[in-house]
Amino acid sequence: MNASTSVNSSDTLTVSSGRSAETRRPPRKRYVFLMSAPALLGLFMFMVLPFLMALGMSFTDQRLLSPNATEWVGLRNYDRLLNISWLVQEPVSDADNHLKQTADGELVYPRLRSVLRKNPEYKEFKEFTHWSFGDKRVVLLAKDPSFIQSIINTLLFVILVVPIQCGTALGLALLINQKLRGIFLFRTVFFSPVVTSIVVVSIVWSFLYHKDLGLFNHYLNAMSFGLIGPVDWLGDPDWAMPSIVLMSAWQAAGVQMLIFLAGLQGISGDLYEAAELDGAGPWGKFVNVTLPGLKNTTIFVVISTTIQAFGLFTQVDVMTRGGPQGSTSTVMYHAVTKGFREQDIAYGSAISVIFFLAILAIALLQKRFFDKREDA
Amino acid sequence: MKRMNISLLSCAVMTTLTFSVGSVMAATSEIKLWRHETSNIKEIEVNKATIDRFNQSQTKWHITAEMIPEGSYTQTVTAAALAGDLPCILDMDQPVVPNFAWSGYLRPLEGLLSQDALDGLIGSAKGTYKGKVYSVGQFDVALALFTRKSILEKYNLRQATYVQPWTKAELLDALAKLKASGEFQYPLAMRTGWTGEWYSYGYAPMLQSFGADQIDRDNYVTSEGVLNGEAGLAWGTFFQGLFDKEYVDRNPSDDKAFVQGRAALDYVGSWEMANHSERWGDDLVVMPVPDFGGGPVIGGGSWQWGITQSCANPEGAAAFVDFMLQPEEISAMSVATGMIPSSPEAAELTEHYQVSGDWRFFYDFSAAFAVLRPATPAYPIISSTFEKMARNIKDGADVQDALDEAVDTIERNISDNKGYGFTQ
């Protein structure tokens, strides 16, 4: 969207200055290059070059601190990241061919770690998850289960946060797009979470989410007359990610709200008048005038929110440290833990490379999806 | 012309500097020092005062100190090491010293420092790697179990002593009683909300008291059977039980449970002593950590000083570190900050830690129970893995699986690094 705006504006520039251009003919190509050089240089130095370095590093065993010489390890880091396998386990049976059972009546399987350690084919593999089919148990293995888990968590976060955050932003934008006295106050209030440091917001929200002392549980308890027991928001693997989603959407929606507001104010009042004359109610106006009018804005907001959501790190680092049981570990968090805290910068680089390619693919897919709808 | 201007300018700057410093002789060489900017302002003030005293005591060397924010300290030092920009002297958290030493950034201190100064220090004030000392510290901290006399009396609990600490059964019994009373929602505060090094510092000693360890200290390359053996499993089950029975808050929102009377017991380091005694006064009781079978264990090793390989004036740097290790300087640090002095002579000079002092027990705990964290360059990964593992156990993961996974992660990392200088 940014790119297309700049293209548009440069088009209008050429059109308006068309006459003088005819007469003087400045070396346009060189001029364009000159003007974009500072930005390109910055991009090259801080984006392209580090990415190429990361790409190179991901094929080595480079450490942050090490007297050992860096060695070329080929695809080892990628193999460790992405390699997935599976195996089927039969339940353990005793001498009389009866299946062994635990006290709860569950079948007993051979200890997976011993099985994996015995078989060189499964070297370095760990359990990611398992399913039971009859007596048999199918175990899905991965060399780095936390990475797979992190990808799933990150996708879950994106899928949850993008609609919530964009929806909230649109709702707020509609609310504050009124010509009322003192509306600036509301605009400021709605925008204030954005200018608050995310670390501070995370700490404050972990107080709110606290199981026994937190405000949320107190309200829930009071409003449901004690029916809804205390929810361990950040301590329960099922609730931790939704809790972070909610907080993140609240914190960041202000930015998208402003963009939507700008979009709303760009819709001509004539259209609403015309719709009113045709007998459209508020809902009809919203669906048939506002939404189509916000189309480009929405595309931009959705794509930028998606990309931003993929980078989830601070909230997780402050509030849950990837826990409970890996349920909030994200790809960024995994990369920082491996690359810096555990000093395996080559492995961290491999994670970033994969991550970059994944985001690029998703952004391109989104763009294609929206472009197609435009044609249709 | 331009060059002349610059040299003139630098001349002018030099002259002003020389004038402002006073009569610094031409032979004075500058020695750079880095330290982390801790939230403990007194620690920094004492350090600055020591530097001033050293600079005034002689004219050969001049120490210039630079503060680096604590949050990014290790990253800054790592980056400076990679860029070859390390200062002469720097302070480091003791467990990362072997990593820096193995990477070749630190000098061994034997032969550089005076042997008397080295010999005078308690064991946990020295950071070693492969038998050589690479760092020395002015202070240490100790873990303890804080409680209140009134609580012990009310619930008829025995006051643990240095000679006879609580056993695991006594601890669990006390927790059960306190929990059943309904007075304390979570009777034991254990700072589970703290992140990073605290997990290793606070909970690995429990593991060691159970008879397990993070790594086999005979070879420093294997962990199989040491971390995930029976003793490790016993620790993990006990640790998980603390949270399952709601003796300890899984995700505490603050650090004030004990000070506000919400918790009856506080498992934390000696640095909280000042806060606790201010709040509870004579009611406060400091007990040694429980004995889980292998004797009570507490962590050892705090921030310490090392001299870098790239230092051009190692004698000057050593002279300053020697200066810092004088009993008067060590005791000055202890008096101002309340931390445990790192030598017996210095302890005698302080009010709290002298033999008859009221905080002497911390010194005794430290001397008797301290086990240093594994002196291996693999420590950063061990610590990070241990934290992740302990958090998973806390949150209800299968204990044996969590331990096994940690062992696999640690061992693979060590083998990737060719044993970190130890034979595999």
What report would you give on this structure?
The complex is a heterodimer of chains A (376) and B (424). Helices cover 65% and strands 6% of the residues of chain A. Chain A is built from 16 helices and three strands. Chain A has helices at 2-16, 18-24, 28-57, 76-82, 112-118, 145-176, 183-195, 198-208, 215-223, 237-265, 269-277, 282-293, 295-310, 314-319, 331-341, 345-375, and strands at residues 84-89, 126-133, 136-142. In chain A, a hairpin with a 2-residue loop joins strand 2 and strand 3 (136-142). In chain A, helix 3 crosses helix 16, helix 6 (145-176) runs parallel beside helix 10 and helix 15 runs antiparallel to helix 16 (345-375). The longest helix of chain A is centred in the middle third of the chain and has 32 residues, at 145-176. Helix content of chain B is 44%, strand content 15%. Chain B is globular, with a radius of gyration of 24 Å. Chain B folds into two domains: 27-140 and 301-372, 3-Layer(aba) Sandwich (D-Maltodextrin-Binding Protein, domain 2); 143-299 and 378-421, D-Maltodextrin-Binding Protein, domain 2 (3-Layer(aba) Sandwich), CATH 3.40.190.10. Chain B is of the alpha/beta class and 424 residues long. In chain B, strands 2-1-3-12 form a four-stranded mixed sheet. A four-stranded mixed sheet of chain B has the order 8-9-7-10. The interface between A and B is large, with 34 and 38 residues.
